[in-house]
Amino acid sequence: MAKPPKFQAIRGTRDLLPPETALWNRVEENARHVFGTFGFGEIRPPVFEPTELFARAVGGETDIVSKEMYTFADQTGQSEEASSLATRHSPLATSISLRPEATASVCRAYIEHNMQQLPQPQKLYYLGPMFRRERPQKGRYRQFYQIGAEVLGGSDAPAIDAEVIEMVMTFFNRLQLPGVQLDVNSIGHAADNCRRGYVAALKSALEKVKDKLGADSQRRIETNPLRVLDSKLEHEQPIIETLPRIADHLCDDCKAHYAAVKCQLELRGVLYKENWRLVRGLDYYMRTTFEITAQGLGSQNAVCGGGRYDGLVELLGGPPTKGIGFAIGEDRLILSLLEGLKSQGGSPNSPLAAGHSPLVYIAWMGEHVCATAIRAAKDLRNAGFSVELPPTEQKFGKALERASKLGSRYALILGDNEVAEGSWTLKTLADGSQQKFTEPELLEFLRSSRG
Ligand code: AMP
User: Fold this and answer.
1) pLDDT of residue 89
2) How far does the centroid of ligand 1 lie from the alpha carbon of residue 130, in Å?
């Protein structure tokens, strides 16, 4: 038989493994808890949707839709047999895409389930994988994970913008994310014309300095002038500093909205920095935009991006609906937390140190002991303790060696004598001390030492 190829995860994708997955779980539990305290409920949309949904919502001209989506043809409305290999690529096929982000899906679900008839606003959060064919590097993957939330319906009161930002900051504080910085901006309102006026002024200023800009920025003058402000190129920085600023072009309503958002953030004790160059890459944003950066991430240091998108639900065929939301890059959040733990020398309370090792290793030997060992493992696990039960008996010396290697705190020694006497020996591996317990006493002891 031919030798099988050496399979590897596809470029830009990766396996998340223990013990790191313990940290992922802790992050997700905290997100669920904190978002719950702000009245958000979880939504789990599918990971693929019609390509048209993303083209409309995110914008056909964006890099995400034009270059980065995983798109394929699928048959709809046909039986399984009809969608055989031969017809899979027929023109009847519907184009579907793996989701590059989830806001579009949440808005689609809001419309599909008539959520505008429920009490407004609807506050929803999601967690899960997203897919973008980007150039992989540290903090940038082709399958990556986002934790996001959306507030749909109700009013566009600045307090809603501020509360959403406060929620993310509360979550990051709880995780003790190192070096968090919140940047805010307002990018005006398409309908009030203030954004259009600004984009025109920006474009004409950019035309004047076009020769001094790099190829990407030159192209963006035509396709999306706001994106020039995102440039990280060293030689473009002094030029960008001289460009017109959106704050000088906001209409009165947008100005008042932005001022009120900042005031609300202050009332909530949320520290922020104004950043006039903060424009979001996606077409649907308006007014409030924000981005949060953290430490230890190099050039890909944004852990969260968000903003207001009042026109999006309508654009997707729903009623006029206010909307604001954010997406946190979970991979980057974890990278930053790991960097933080590393620089503290890995605190003993770190989720990487705990959670994975068994508390109790059952060192059992003897034909008649097997049944007791199985029952002991079951009872301890039912009481919530983690237990390693070796599948075959081991000499006690070898069992203790393995228990230490796994990082267990205790070895429960079960031999013929212990079973006959109904008195079990618990060895504390750190200092070698031993104590004898009946089974109920053992449970009581472990419960009280859980603290
Ligand atoms: P966006 O949906 O582009 O606004 O991104 C929101 C957040 O998702 C960013 O701030 C990043 O933290 C994260 N993110 C976006 N693209 C990637 C990627 N390719 N790999 C890892 N994280 C990403």
Assistant:
1) 46
2) 9
